[in-house]
Design the sequence.
C-alpha cells in the first residue's frame, strides 16, 4: 500500500549542500519545502568521539551501507559489469549533510577555461587537438555568469583564503575569512615553488581560520587543527557543513521539514511535468508518494542519474550511436603526484582538511599545450590534513611491504614524508558513461547504476606530465628521496582515489548534448531540477564542492523564478 | 621479505606464554594467552590484573569471540607477528594485542561483511572490479589460516606456529605472490586483508583491543585523540605529545 502525502511546493531528494541550499533559498521565499534524506539525522553533537581513525576512516562509519545499494562497474562494454561489493575507489555517503559533513573543505571555483573548454581549446589549438571520441563541450554558462553564485556560496560557507592566484577567474569580493595558518610544512612548499618560478597561494578552505557569522546568521567556529576532517564530522562546528549553515537557515523559516530514512526510488512523471516522488521508509519499508510542484534531485551525482534512468525521464546515452544524453560524459579525476622522504621530523599528524598551499601554473590552459598530447592539467598542492597512523605507512622504494624492515621504515618515515598531490582534470570520452544494470538490484528492487569507465590516453599523458612537475617541486623542497606516482594504466575500482565523480546529468545550452539547462532545469520536464557534480560537462583540476555550491544557488534562483512564472527558464 | 630474525624466534616467544610475554607486553595480554592456552574463553578475571588503566581490555580480561580453538588463533598470532614484528622500537603484533583485535573484528560487522553488497549472482571478475566472492571475511580468515597450517605441514612437516621465522615468511610470501590455491578468493587478496588487519590492530585506538598501552602510537609518534593543535602547529620542532585514547575521555 502506498500512502500519498500532502502536496508541497518543493521536494528535494537528499539533504546535503545542494538540498540544503535549495531548501534555504526557497523556504526564505515562503515556499513549503520537504527534504527527503535516506540516511539519519546527525550533527555536531554526534562528533564528540570522532577522533577515531579506525571507525570513521577505515570502516567508513559515515558512508553508505552497500548491503542496501551499490553500483556495478566494468572497464569497457565487452566486460560483464559486476557490483562494487566493497567501498574503494570513491566513497558514497548518506545521512544529513551528505558529503558536506565529511569533506576536507577544499573549496574551489572551476577556472573560466573550464566553462568554455571546447571553444577555447579550438580557438587556440584548432578543432583536432583531441580525437573526436573525447566529447568535450562548453557548459552553457560562463565563469562571469556564475561568479555571483560562487561568491554567494563562499559567503555562506565562510571560506578562508587569499586572492593571490594569478590564474583563477576574477573575484567580485575578498574571501569571507582570512587564510589558514601557513605552517612550516606549507612554507617548504611555498619557498620551493617560488624558487621554481611558480605562484603558490593558500588553498581556499572551509575549515575556517576564524569564527564567522554568515549572511543568514549561521555561526561557524574557528578550526582547531585537530587533524580529523576527511571522512570525519567536525566536533567544533568549525568545518562549514550543511547541517550547521543552510539546513538551520531553512528550518528557521518555519517552511522546511526533513524526513529521514526516506529513500526515493522514483520520480513520478505525467506528460511533460513531474508530479512528485515515491519513496520507501528505510526502517518500516512503508511506501509513500510525496507530491510536489517542483522536484529537485539533490543527491549524489550517481543517484541523481539513476533516479532519472529508472523513472525513464530523458534519453539514455548509447555509446554505440552517440545518441542520448542521460549518463553521458561521466568523468573522474586523475591524480598525479610525488612523495618526498626527508631527514627531519615534521608535525604531520597536526592539520586540517583544507590546510594547504597550491600552484595553478599547470592547471587548465595556464600553460601552453601546443606541443603536448593532452589538454587541461591539474592543481598541484601540498596539504597538511593530519596523517593518521593506519593509513599512513610511507616507505622508500624497494622496502618490503611487511616484516621487520617494513615496520622500521614505516615508523621512521611516518613523520618524515610529504606529498605534493595533483587533482587532474578528466575529459569525457565516448566510451565512459553510466546506465542501468541489467542484473543487479538494490534492496528495494531497483536496478543498480552501472558504470563503464576506463582511463584514456589523454589521462595517461596528463598524469605523466604533471607527475614530473610535482616531483620537481618535491626535489626543490629538499627531499632526500623523491618518488613520483606510477603511470596509470586501467582504472581500478579497489583502491581509494577520489570521490570527485562527475557527469551523467550534464548542463548545457543544447538539449542534444545536455540533460539540464543552465538553471539546472530538465529539458524534458520544466518543474524538475537536477543539481550537483553530475552537471559538470567534464571534470576540472580542483575539488568540485565550490562549483557545486554555486550551481545550487543558481538552481535555487531558477526554481524561485519558475514558481512565479512557469515555463522554461532559458 | 625479512629474513629469519636472529635474536628471537617465534617458537620461543610462543612457548614462553604468559609470564615472559607479560614481562614484554604488559598485563592486558597475559590473561588472553592463558585463556587461549587452556582452550576456554572463561579465564577468571584474577588471571589478568589490569595493570594499565589505558589498556584496551576492560578489567584486564581477554578472550576469544570468533576463533574456537587455540591452534587457529596461534597461527593468526604468529602470522601477524611476522608482518609486524617486535623489535628494538617496541612490541610487535602479539605484544600490541593485534590477534585479539582481529578476533573481535571477525566476530562483528567486519567479519560478517554486513555493510557490503553480498547479493548474487557471483562471477569471477577482472582484478579492477574488486572483490566478487560470496565468502565473508571471517570465512576467508578461517580458510586462510587452515591453508597456512597445511603449507607448514607440506613444506616443513610442522605446525605453522612452531616454524622458524624465515619458514613462516616463506609461506606468507607464497600467499602474497598468489602462489597458494584458495577457494573463493585469491591468496593475494587474503594476504592483503591480513596485512591491513594487522596494521589496523597495531594503530587503531586501544578501545578496539589492539594497540595495547598505546604502544603502536608511541612507536610512531602519533598522539591519538587530542583536542587541538592550534597552539603547536606553527612550531618548527617535532612535538612529542603523550598519546591519549578515546577511552580516556570519559
Sequence:
Amino acid at each position: 500500500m502506498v500512502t500519498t502525502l500532502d502536496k508541497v511546493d518543493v521536494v528535494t531528494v537528499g539533504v546535503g549542500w545542494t538540498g540544503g541550499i535549495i531548501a534555504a533559498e526557497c523556504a526564505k521565499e515562503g515556499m513549503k519545502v520537504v527534504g527527503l534524506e535516506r540516511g539519519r539525522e546527525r550533527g555536531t553533537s554526534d562528533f564528540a568521539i570522532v577522533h577515531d581513525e579506525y571507525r570513521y576512516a577505515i570502516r567508513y562509519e559515515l558512508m553508505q551501507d552497500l548491503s542496501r545499494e551499490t553500483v556495478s562497474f566494468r572497464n569497457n562494454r565487452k566486460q560483464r559489469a559486476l557490483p562494487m561489493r566493497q567501498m574503494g575507489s570513491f566513497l558514497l555517503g548518506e545521512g544529513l549533510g551528505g558529503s558536506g559533513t565529511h569533506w576536507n573543505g577544499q573549496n574551489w571555483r572551476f577556472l573560466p577555461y573550464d566553462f568554455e573548454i571546447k571553444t577555447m581549446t579550438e580557438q587556440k589549438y584548432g578543432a583536432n587537438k583531441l580525437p573526436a571520441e573525447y566529447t568535450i563541450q562548453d557548459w552553457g554558462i560562463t565563469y562571469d555568469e556564475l561568479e555571483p553564485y560562487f561568491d554567494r556560496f563562499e559567503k555562506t560557507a565562510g571560506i578562508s583564503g587569499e586572492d593571490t592566484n594569478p590564474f583563477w577567474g576574477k573575484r567580485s569580493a575578498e574571501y569571507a575569512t582570512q587564510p589558514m595558518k601557513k605552517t612550516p610544512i606549507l612554507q617548504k612548499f611555498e619557498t620551493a615553488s617560488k624558487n621554481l618560478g611558480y605562484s603558490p597561494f593558500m588553498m581556499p578552505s572551509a575549515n575556517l581560520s576564524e569564527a564567522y557569522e554568515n549572511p543568514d546568521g549561521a555561526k561557524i567556529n574557528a578550526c582547531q587543527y585537530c587533524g580529523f576532517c576527511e571522512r570525519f564530522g567536525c566536533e567544533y562546528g568549525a568545518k562549514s557543513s550543511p547541517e550547521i549553515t543552510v539546513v538551520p537557515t531553512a528550518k528557521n523559516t518555519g517552511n522546511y521539514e526533513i524526513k529521514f530514512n526516506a529513500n526515493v526510488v522514483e520520480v513520478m512523471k505525467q506528460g511533460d511535468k513531474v508530479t512528485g516522488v515515491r519513496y520507501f521508509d528505510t526502517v518500516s519499508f512503508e511506501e509513500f508518494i510525496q507530491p510536489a510542484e517542483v522536484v529537485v534531485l539533490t543527491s549524489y551525482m550517481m543517484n541523481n542519474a539513476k533516479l532519472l534512468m529508472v523513472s525513464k525521464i530523458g534519453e539514455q546515452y548509447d555509446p554505440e550511436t552517440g545518441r542520448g544524453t542521460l549518463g553521458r560524459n561521466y568523468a573522474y579525476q586523475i591524480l598525479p603526484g610525488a612523495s618526498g622522504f626527508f631527514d627531519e621530523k615534521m608535525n604531520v599528524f597536526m592539520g586540517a582538511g583544507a590546510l594547504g598551499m597550491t600552484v595553478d601554473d599547470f592547471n587548465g590552459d595556464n600553460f601552453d599545450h601546443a606541443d603536448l598530447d593532452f589538454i587541461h592539467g591539474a592543481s598541484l598542492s601540498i596539504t597538511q590534513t593530519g596523517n593518521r597512523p593506519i593509513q599512513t605507512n610511507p616507505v622508500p622504494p624497494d622496502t618490503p611491504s611487511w616484516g621487520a624492515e617494513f615496520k622500521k621504515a614505516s615508523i621512521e618515515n611516518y613523520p618524515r614524508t610529504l606529498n605534493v598531490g595533483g587533482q587532474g582534470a578528466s575529459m569525457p570520452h565516448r566510451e565512459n558513461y553510466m546506465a542501468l544494470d541489467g542484473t543487479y538490484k538494490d534492496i528495494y528492487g531497483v536496478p543498480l547504476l552501472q558504470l563503464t569507465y576506463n582511463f584514456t590516453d589523454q589521462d595517461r599523458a596528463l598524469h605523466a606530465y604533471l607527475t614530473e612537475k610535482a616531483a620537481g617541486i618535491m626535489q626543490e623542497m629538499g627531499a632526500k628521496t623523491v618518488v613520483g606516482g606510477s603511470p596509470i594504466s586501467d582504472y581500478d575500482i579497489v583502491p581509494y582515489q577520489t570521490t570527485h565523480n562527475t557527469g551523467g546529468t550534464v548542463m548545457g545550452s543544447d538539449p542534444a548534448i545536455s540533460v539540464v539547462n543552465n538553471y539546472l532545469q530538465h529539458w524534458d520536464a520544466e518543474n524538475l531540477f537536477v543539481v550537483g557534480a553530475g552537471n559538470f560537462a567534464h571534470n576540472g583540476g580542483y575539488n568540485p564542492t565550490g562549483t557545486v555550491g554555486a550551481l545550487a544557488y543558481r538552481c535555487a534562483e531558477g526554481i524561485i523564478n519558475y514558481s512565479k512564472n512557469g515555463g522554461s527558464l532559458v | 621479505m625479512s629474513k629469519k630474525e636472529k635474536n628471537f624466534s617465534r617458537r620461543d616467544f610462543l612457548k614462553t606464554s604468559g609470564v615472559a610475554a607479560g614481562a614484554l607486553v604488559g598485563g592486558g595480554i597475559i590473561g588472553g594467552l592463558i585463556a587461549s592456552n587452556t582452550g576456554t574463553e572463561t579465564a577468571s578475571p584474577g588471571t589478568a590484573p589490569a595493570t594499565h588503566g589505558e589498556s584496551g581490555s576492560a578489567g584486564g580480561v581477554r578472550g576469544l569471540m570468533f576463533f574456537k580453538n587455540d591452534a587457529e588463533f596461534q597461527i593468526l598470532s604468529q602470522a601477524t607477528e611476522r608482518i609486524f614484528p617486535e623489535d628494538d622500537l617496541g612490541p610487535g603484533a602479539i605484544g600490541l594485542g593485534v590477534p585479539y583485535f582481529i578476533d573481535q573484528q571477525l566476530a562483528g560487522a567486519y567479519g560478517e561483511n554486513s555493510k557490503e553488497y553480498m547479493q548474487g549472482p557471483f562471477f569471477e571478475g577482472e582484478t579492477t572490479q574488486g572483490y566478487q566472492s560470496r565468502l565473508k571475511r571471517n570465512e576467508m580468515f578461517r580458510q586462510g589460516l587452515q591453508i597456512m597450517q597445511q603449507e607448514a605441514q607440506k613444506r616443513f612437516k610442522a605446525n605453522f606456529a612452531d616454524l622458524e621465522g624465515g619458514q613462516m615468511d616463506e609461506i606468507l610470501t607464497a600467499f602474497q605472490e598468489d602462489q597458494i590455491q584458495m577457494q573463493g578468493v585469491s591468496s593475494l587478496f587474503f594476504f592483503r586483508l591480513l596485512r591491513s588487519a594487522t596494521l589496523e590492530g597495531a594503530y587503531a585506538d586501544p578501545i578496539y583491543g589492539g594497540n595495547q598501552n598505546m604502544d603502536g602510537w608511541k612507536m610512531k609518534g602519533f598522539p591519538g585523540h587530542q583536542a587541538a593543535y592550534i597552539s603547536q602547529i606553527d612550531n618548527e620542532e617535532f612535538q612529542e605529545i603523550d598519546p591519549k585514547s578515546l577511552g580516556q575521555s570519559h
